[in-house]
């Protein structure tokens, strides 16, 4: 007698079908996303790209900051260069006639303070009134406002050798040394010091024109004629 086979259970068939369906879904997901190792590598690559982009942004920000800081510093330097004092020394034809004057001028836009003057080589003479007066002036600290100058007599016998008589002044070439400060941050007592050196040599100036004295005034001319002659001479001096 043959025993009939038991009928398949529907729930088992359904369970097997559902399992196969899940496997199919997993296979599809694996095909799309790849294997777990590939997913980890992709995540690592994404992390590296993110880190690189972040570094580029940080580097760009640093470069921008450095450029802005350099620009600001250069602007500060330019502003100071335009407002600082500029003191220089030169020889000019004297207003007293055929001789030379020393002119110390501040052509800057602010006051030169603690101005100290000195010569690299002083004449080895005694009793010369011009040399003595210049020496006394150079012992003091001077203040020179902007667009002003100091004029002192320098040499009364241009082109001649020293003969030892009277006040002759400085005959041989020499260099003058200047040291001064500005009034920036005066309240904080922080001053910028400047130093310069200029050659004082009348020989290198060549034939320097002098102001014409005008008509020669005689003893017979009156006071008005003499004053007019002085005015003409002063105007000619201003034209130099």
Would you mind describing this structure in some detail?
This protein is an alpha+beta fold and 240 residues long. The protein folds into 3 domains: 44-82; 85-206, Immunoglobulin-like (Sandwich), CATH 2.60.40; 209-240. The chain is 41% helix and 20% strand. The chain contains 4 helices and 7 strands, in the order ααβββαββββα. The protein has helices spanning 10-33, 36-83, 129-138, 223-238; strands spanning 87-93, 100-106, 112-119, 142-144, 148-155, 174-181, 193-200. The strands form 2 sheets. A 4-stranded antiparallel β-sheet has the order 4-3-6-7. A hairpin with a 6-residue loop joins β1 and β2 (100-106). The longest helix is centred in the first third of the chain and has 48 residues, at 36-83. The N and C termini lie far apart (150 Å). The model is unreliable at 9-15 (pLDDT under 50).
